[in-house]
Specification:
The complex is a heterodimer.
Chain A: H1 2-11, E1 16-18, E2 23-28, H2 29-41, E3 49-57, E4 62-70, E5 76-83, E6 91-93, H3 102-113, E7 116-118, E8 160-166, E9 172-178, E10 185-189, E11 201-207, E12 210-217, H4 225-229, H5 234-242, H6 249-264, H7 270-298, H8 302-323, E13 332-333, E14 336-337, H9 345-368, H10 371-377, H11 385-390, H12 395-399, H13 407-410, H14 431-453, E15 474-482, E16 485-493, E17 501-505, H15 507-513, H16 515-519, H17 524-534, H18 538-542
Parallel strand pairs in A: 2-5, 6-7
Antiparallel strand pairs in A: 1-2, 3-4, 4-5, 8-9, 10-11, 11-12, 13-14, 15-16, 16-17
Chain B: H1 5-17, H2 22-59, H3 75-84, H4 96-116, H5 131-152, H6 156-187, H7 192-198, H8 204-207, H9 209-226, H10 238-241, H11 251-276, H12 289-296, H13 300-319, H14 327-355
Helix pairs in contact in B: 2-3, 2-11, 3-11, 4-5, 4-11, 5-6, 6-9, 6-14, 9-11, 9-14, 11-13
The chains are: A alpha+beta, B mainly alpha.
């Protein structure tokens, strides 16, 4: 730790340090970009992954907290706090040229906080309409409904974008940009479309059947979860996580609970840990089965879709028996889980593990072994390992690009430290590899379940939690491996019973960021299969 | 075999016996035949919709429609009634005349092809010396309707769908035509009733052995593409283009495309039956007189329909098993593999015929 302090101190003497769960560096805005450059390029620091970009409003000042991870230095994390110089006309230098993942992340921060990023290539709003008044996550936001009525007319100037650049005198000026030129053939895909997997919207510029550029238009299912959490107590905010990536409901909620437990310093009973691990893996199986079905369906193989769903039903039945619901299970709570396992749980899980290998063979026979499917998926949607790291594409999609990024291995949590499983890595870098990683991860999840199912310890399912949960002042960041990648929760507390700021760093947000990169140069039909193989869930992007 | 021609000639002489002039008798017969063809068309379409739904449910571990009527038998009637009472919507910016014309072109070409099929012994509406050639010519008209529909809708999805359809239909028509031509070379005729009569001793698929079997396989693949069915359903690729060329159609205009698609499935199966499986001709094995005699007891119409339904079953099976190919892969498949193969096969057949290497 002191090493990093020394190096950063040399590069930027103005930096101040704050120890916490990970080192927090505060730098003035003027020094931020040079420091960011050395964070990435200095071999002793080598923070190659930008894990999270959290916009913050500290009332007096406004700024951003960046979370970095260094894959070469044992996945160590570093937080950097940058404050804008002025509250009302806030500018921060963009780092989207260093870490491409920052492109969409900074657009989100601009959308929610009004911080303009200098040199960002495409400074538009991300979720809200261009004519939205105000920036909702600012503490001085005026939520008067008359300012933002429900607008029924089309959004005009959809193609207008802009960049902020520093001119020769050091003044920041705005320059207009166009998203698409006038004579481009732009096809609108979504928000109502059979295979965008929800209310997602892409605008694709075509040359014949070949995609030239994809513009992601998001926000059709944005519910303002981060804003809502600021007015709720900690037990109340738990249910939101089930409704983000509903295919990783258990993992997401696990993450939020872990973050709160970490802040409270709670010790979680062994039984709860094992139950949580098992539920996470069951959720992963269910998610990957859905992904298999949807990939098959997007390729036109509707029958395979039903095969995937047939087995997924069994997982949902297990959830229903224990949690009382098939979706939005609301199972994890602060300190453990809400209810004990159903008496049939062990029997059902054993049955599932028993039949899965047979069924997986059937899937490969019906779909993955098919020549047409192979031709459609292989060599399509190439994403190199460097790009995967730069765009922070974690989860099966990142591992399909041969990037070892499994949180369960890097920072073991719950019972993952005690079980044996392989991290599946494939080096195809294409849609087929991403798809195959998922299929093989189902086997690994079964392996984890097999090791745990007979070893569920007896004991409490919940730790003793105070009636009113109050987190001490401070900030925490927690990651878990959700079905689609690394899911992160950032909590900043001022010691109240409601959080000051909660940020969810969802894996799908990053996944949709590579749509332009992976689809350009392929056909319009490939856009759909690339989307299916990346496997994003829209409510997780929009939150 | 019972000759249905007896009935038709008896009816003809009955009309003439009343003392009416020839033209009046022909007019009355034409009207009756037109009504019969349209009725057959509708009934077959309804049957095919249910047939496919039940089959696909079976492939997918489901039951399919079960609520309306016993085993969901009345479901298709309910669907058809619903589609008939729906509003015909013509959106702003469409070319109204062409937009409304397109479904009729598609359905007309499909009905005309239906009329050419050999339904049974003596049950044939249009029968002339260029029979199979005529069917191919009429089937090409259908693509015009699809192109018009896609263009007149003034929508980017439909335009892409129509362009794909044009590229696909024109490409696959080549292999389709060549594979049929292979059989014409073998049979030495294009006349439909003569083609059927030729297969009395044994079906062409067996008589022409290797080149006929290759031609049959090529035909089934090309026919699947011609009918826009999976894995070649790119013009209406649901997951890319929502519904392709007929995205903007509603009510019975959409219904026409829908019916034509199902009936084209029957028609290509019918042509396969005619060219490879003996049309309405029962299964005859040379030398097995008793067996052949027993087979003759099954009516010719049943033979024809059963064979056509079987071929349709295979094509439906394709659709519910295979993923969809991409446009470049589809065209490459046709131009690089299927068409050269069928050309070579045509020459092979000519050699076989010249040297008499067949049964």
């Amino acid at each position: 730790m002191s090493d990093i302090k020394e190096i950063i101190g040399k590069i930027c003497p103005e930096a101040t340090f704050e120890d916490g769960e990970c080192l927090l560096v505060s730098v003035p805005e003027k020094k931020w970009y040079p420091l960011a450059k050395s964070l990435k390029e200095n071999k002793d620091l080598d923070f190659d992954v930008l894990s999270a970009v959290v916009g913050m409003d500290w009332k007096e000042t406004i700024g951003v907290v960046y979370y970095f991870t260094s894959t070469s230095h044992n996945w160590g994390m570093l937080a950097v706090k940058v404050e804008a110089e002025s509250r009302d006309d806030a500018y921060i230098h963009s780092v989207s040229d260093l870490w491409k993942v920052a492109n969409f992340q900074e657009r989100e921060v601009y959308d929610m906080f009004g911080i303009k990023f200098v040199n960002h290539p495409d400074m538009r709003r991300f979720f809200l309409r261009n004519d939205w008044v105000g920036h909702p996550l600012r503490k001085d936001y005026d939520a008067n409904p008359e300012l933002n009525p429900i607008r029924l007319e089309d959004e005009i100037n959809e193609d207008d974008s802009r960049v902020f650049v520093e001119n020769a005198e050091g003044k920041i000026v705005e320059e207009p940009r166009k998203v698409f030129e006038k004579d481009e053939y732009v096809v609108n895909i979504g928000p109502q479309h059979p295979s965008t997997h929800g209310v997602m919207r892409f605008r694709a510029s075509l040359d014949g059947e070949i995609v030239k550029k994809v513009d992601v238009v998001s926000g059709y299912i944005h519910r303002g979860i981060e804003k809502l959490t600021e007015g709720m107590t900690y037990p109340q905010i738990l249910h939101f996580t089930d409704r983000m990536d509903y295919m990783s409901a258990h993992q997401n909620r696990h993450c939020l609970c872990m973050c709160i437990e970490k802040a409270l310093g709670l010790e979680i009973p062994k039984r709860a840990q094992v139950i949580r691990t098992m539920m996470d893996e069951l959720m992963r199986i269910s998610s990957h089965l859905l992904s298999f079905g949807c990939t098959a369906m997007d390729l036109g193989a509707t029958t395979a879709f039903f095969y995937g769903f047939r087995e997924r039903e069994m997982v949902l039945d297990i959830f229903e028996k224990t949690c009382g619901a098939r979706m939005s299970m609301n199972y994890n709570v602060i300190g453990g889980v809400i209810a004990d396992l159903h008496p049939d749980f062990v029997k059902d899980v054993k049955h599932l593990i028993e039949i899965m290998p047979e069924r997986l063979k059937e899937y490969h026979k019906v779909f993955s072994g098919n020549l047409i499917a192979k031709n459609r998926l292989k060599g399509v949607g190439m994403l190199s390992k460097e790009d995967a790291v730069n765009y922070a594409i974690t989860g099966p999609s990142g591992r399909g690009s041969n990037w070892s990024c499994d949180c369960r291995k890097k920072h073991p949590y719950a019972a993952y430290g005690e079980v044996e499983f392989d991290e599946i890595l494939l080096d195809g870098c294409d849609s087929y590899s991403r798809y195959m990683v998922r299929m093989k991860e189902i086997e690994q999840s079964c392996r984890i379940l097999e090791q745990l199912v007979d070893r569920i310890p007896e004991g409490e399912i919940r730790a003793q939690v105070p009636k009113i949960v109050k987190l001490p002042a401070g900030r925490w960041y927690q990651q878990v491996e959700a079905s689609r990648g690394t899911f992160g929760v950032y909590i900043e507390s001022t010691g109240e019973k409601t959080p000051y700021r909660v940020h969810f760093q969802s894996p799908c947000f990053n996944l949709v960021g590579v749509m332009d990169l992976t689809c350009s140069g392929y056909m319009i039909a490939d856009l759909i299969t690339i989307g299916a193989a990346l496997d994003f869930v829209i409510p997780d992007i929009d939150r | 075999m019972f000759d249905f021609g007896k009935w038709t000639s008896a009816f003809n002489s009955l009309l003439l016996g009343t003392g009416m002039p020839d033209w009046a008798a022909v007019l009355i017969e034409c009207v009756i035949i037109a009504v019969l063809v349209l009725a057959t068309y509708t009934v077959l379409a309804l049957f095919y919709i249910l047939y496919e739904r039940k089959l696909c449910a079976w492939f997918q571990c489901r039951l399919g429609p079960m609520r309306v009527g016993k085993w969901g038998l009345l479901q298709v009637f309910a669907d058809m009634f619903k589609i008939l009472i729906k509003e015909l919507i013509c959106l702003k910016g469409t070319d109204r005349f062409l937009f409304k014309l397109a479904p009729y072109i598609v359905i007309t070409s499909s009905v005309t092809m239906l009329a050419c099929l050999p339904w049974g012994n003596g049950l044939q509406i249009i029968d002339w010396n260029i029979g199979i050639f005529f069917i191919l010519a009429v089937s090409s008209v259908g693509v015009l309707g699809i192109l018009l529909a896609g263009w007149a809708s003034n929508n980017k999805y439909t335009l892409i769908g129509a362009m794909r359809s044009g590229a696909q239909m024109i490409s696959y028509e080549l292999s389709l035509g060549i594979s049929l031509m292979t059989i014409c070379v073998f049979a030495g005729t294009m006349n439909i009733s003569e083609l059927v009569a030729e297969q009395e001793s044994a079906w062409f698929l067996f008589r022409g052995h290797i080149p006929a079997i290759i031609a049959f396989i090529i035909y089934v693949i090309a026919a699947t593409a011609e009918t826009n069915r999976g894995p070649f359903d790119l013009p209406e690729a649901e997951h890319e283009l929502t519904a392709g060329y007929h995205t903007e159609y509603s009510g019975i205009h959409f219904g026409f495309f829908y019916l034509a698609e199902y009936l084209n499935l029957f028609i290509v199966s019918g042509i396969a039956t005619l060219m490879f499986l003996g049309g309405w001709m029962p299964l005859h094995i040379p030398g097995w007189e008793a067996f052949n005699h027993v087979m003759d007891f099954i009516p010719s119409v049943v033979w024809f329909l059963a064979k056509a339904f079987f071929i349709s079953f295979v094509i439906i099976w394709f659709k519910w098993t295979f993923p969809r190919v991409r446009i470049d892969q589809m065209l490459a498949f046709e131009w690089k593999y299927l068409m050269p193969f069928s050309l070579v096969n045509l020459i092979l057949m000519a050699v076989f015929v010249a040297l008499g290497w067949h049964f």
